[in-house]
Amino acid sequence: MRKIKTLVIFLFIVATVSSQKSFEKIALAQAKEMANYYNNQNYNKYINFLLPTDWGKSSKTLEVLLKPSTVKDTVSFKIIRVLKSAITKKEYQALILCKFQNIDRYIFALSKNGGKNWLFTHPITTKLYFNSVIDKIPSLDTSFSNIVDTKYGKRINYTKGEKITPFKFADIQGKSLSSDSLKGKVIVLNFWSISCGPCIGEMPELNKLVAKMRGKDVVFIAPAVLSPKEVIINKFLPKHPFDFQIVPIDLDDYNVYNLPTFVIIDKNSKVVENSFRLFIAEIEQKINELLKQ
Fold this sequence. Notes:
alpha+beta, five-stranded mixed sheet, 10 helices, elongated
């Protein structure tokens, strides 16, 4: 009896693996078909393979693809192999490695009919935040993060309605800033970079906001990514004065993948706002609301 049970389990595993390989082959074949349409500049058919999150079948996508600079691009789009697949709530999923513009890229693929028909993302960078993918494709199995983003789940989050992870920063002047020392104050974080045009463009207005709030229980901190302290002090600030307390950080430690991103924290260390390109008038309004509480 035990031998029979073992044989049944073995056959089940073999059947499962065989089935998985079968739907992976279909995904790979359809991905290659999609890539061929792209390489032949048949964009009307190419966009039929795109997921809605990538503006599949959209005239907007066609407008981008049909720009002269794109049409003249003769670099091939090559599908290489399936790196991983999964079945989540009857949705078949796959992660595909490809070459796009001579660079390794990822494509995520989804099928809602048992792996018979697939839709794909446009090729995306292999250096990505899995959170940004989940934002677009919430149904995606988190096990894909083991390949594409090993720090997934380990970064600091700023989730609206939740308490912040305790922090301790040292700004470019050597001044210590910690969540404990700032309790009872409203905190505004502005994630930025010296190479971010929109970040730099709004600095004069942000400086005015800092001046307006002087003497009130609010602290303005600017975590700076890809921005060495010496470069900020010696080259950047002489040209672009910035009145936030600037703190160089490693962006890979945080779930922030767009710049500038603003995080507003209330007096009880709870996140009340986390937004990309928040209007400065909105920041001011939110600060004033929190100061009254």
